[in-house]
Amino acid sequence: MKDTPKPEPTVPPAGAEAIIEISGLHKWYGEFHVLNGIDLTVQTGERIVICGPSGSGKSTLIRCINRLEEHQRGRIIVNGTELTSDIKNVEKVRAEVGMVFQHFNLFPHLTVLDNLTLGPIWVRKTPKKEAEEEAMVYLEKVHIAEQAKKFPGQLSGGQQQRVAIARSLCMKPKVMLFDEPTSALDPEMVKEVLDVMINLAEEGMTMLVVTHEMGFAKSVAHRVMFMDYGLIVEQNTPQAFFDHPQHERTKLFLSQILQ
Amino acid sequence: MSEVNSSQEPEVLKPPAIQLGVLGWLRGNLFNTWYNSLLTLLFFAIFWKLVPPLVKWAFIDSRWYSSAEACRDIDGACWSIIPANIRFILFGFFPHDQQWRPLIAMLLLVAMVFYSKDRRHWTRLLLWIWPAALAVMGLLMHGGLFGLSVVETSQWSGLPLTLMLALFGMFAAYPLGVLLALGRRSRMPAIKSLCVVYIELIRGVPLISLLFMSSVMFPLFLPEGVTINKVLRAQVAIIMFTAAYIAEVVRGGLQAMPRGQYEAAESLGLNYKQTMRLIILPQALKIVIPPSVGILISAFKDTSLVVIIALYDVLKTTKVTLSNPKWAGYSTEAYLFLAVLYFVCCYAMSSYSRKLEKALHTGR
User: Does domain B171-360 bear CATH number 1.10.3720.10?
Assistant: First the structure.
């Protein structure tokens, strides 16, 4: 993605509040130690790209942030609410955190419009008409308003992923999590999704993106993180990260994916 | 070496025509190989041997409206057994002069079913019409108000009894089965094991034994003087039995749902109930329409087992008719009539389920 418009990757606004605070985070799948002591603070408005080999724990990390995965040790505080086994806290956090999945996970039995209004109507208790008007605004924003009455199964992969992004945005989240949003797409559809994400970045959305789209990382991220073996091996500004990787494993990884 | 196709658009060709009229079709499908030809001829021979005599028996040599005596000296079918005994077959021991009441109740039921078939009528209003219609049907059957004489449930018999057992059996069993399926997948061990035990226990015994238990054993545990209506007990046994089967089918549907659907719903902030109601169940229940309808159809037919606890459903009233020496020889005709009756109901269910599946299909 060389020719994507560049929002200037600057340091996030100084003195911004931390919206996500993770400290000493550990997680095991059975015997497998997938997250091995993660400390991470995300400022409001900050955009972070996380990369790393498969099995490094990057997806698990962002899935912990809205508790699709439970952590066994350490603390996660999102928007002032700590994630515990208290389901009320979890639902509170989930309403504030949007998530976009690799496989879109749209609801196939509902129209595009109903996919978008479901959250606002049932979680935010927005009146139906208002929710639909807002949903149309977001569909407009991801350039897909004309498909509102269709079912997800009738759309292309890129269109579905844009609908999924709009669905998350309808909840007016404070943070957006992207879990390999372009990995399941045909190559010619990657750009339309990245463009939507870049627009979102320009509006100042706080974003955590797990992706291997290094062009996107270079142009959008404030911080790029490399994870391996459940650890954050290295993190830096995109410039420094790509030009002068410090760690051997980072160098190896970058050489493999950038050829 | 590179090659560029100079024409702008590829020429659009029609698929090759293979239809060559009736003869071509016959040749292509029935006589295309020597063994297919042989099978075709064999089939026609059997058809020729069986069908004309059957038509002759059922329609040509048959009597439709005659006395039993007039049937003695014909070779064909004596359909007269049906019209001559129709009131007893359909309404059994319901008081003769009151039989207009179950008739109206059944017509009302059929009307309700037809009205509810159309998905455009699935509104909140319908949820109010059904209980009202059921109340009217109950009033017609039982009486006791508006000058209608009371008819005890022990006198309810024939088709109304069959339809009632089947309808309530299906409509109460379905939600119960869904709850059991959800319970079996629950993370709470107590609920989970309760549901597992229930489902496995009920599925492990035949319906007949459940019916026996409900009518013979169950009253033994009740204090003296307390009785629970026999029809109600049979009804409960049928509901419990059907629900266990529905539960397993629905569980299959729930397991077929991809994890991503749960995750997407949860990440929007929907709670468990909303996730199930809005996302998971609508999809899972759609997947299991074919096997569920299979269970509902067999539940419908299984209602005839209530004869063993001396309830007179439509099968039993037919048998009683046949035990009348006057009509004793015409069981073929009577059972064929019953078979058609059951078939119409079951086929209606199965064809409706296919339509519903199509209507709910949303691509993918």
Answer: yes
CB contact under 8 A, B363 and A106: no
CB contact under 8 A, B261 and A68: no
For CATH 1.10.3720.10, the residue range(s) in chain B are 171-360
Picking from A66, A107, A152, the nearest residue to B267 by CB comes out as A66
Instruction: Work out the number of other CB atoms within 10 angstroms of the CB of residue A23.
Output: 13
Distance in angstroms (rounded) separating the CA atoms of residues B68 and B271 = 67
What are residue B54's phi and psi, to 5 degrees? -65, -45
Q: What are phi and psi of B357, to 5 degrees?
A: -60, -45
Q: What is the ipTM of this complex?
A: 0.88
Please write the tens of the pLDDT for every residue from B74-97. Answer: 777 777 777 777 777 777 777 777
- Residue ranges of alpha helices (H) inside B185-280 are 189-203, 207-212, 218-221, 230-256, 259-267, 272-274
Helix, strand, coil proportions of chain A in percent (round to 5)?
Answer: 40, 25, 35
The whole-number average pLDDT for the span A178-187 is 90
Element (H, E) at B334: helix B331-360
Contact A101 B274 (CB under 8 A): no
pTM of the model: 0.79
The model's pLDDT over A20-65, given as tens digits with 9 standing for 90+, comes to 999 999 999 988 888 988 899 998 989 999 998 888 889 999 999 9
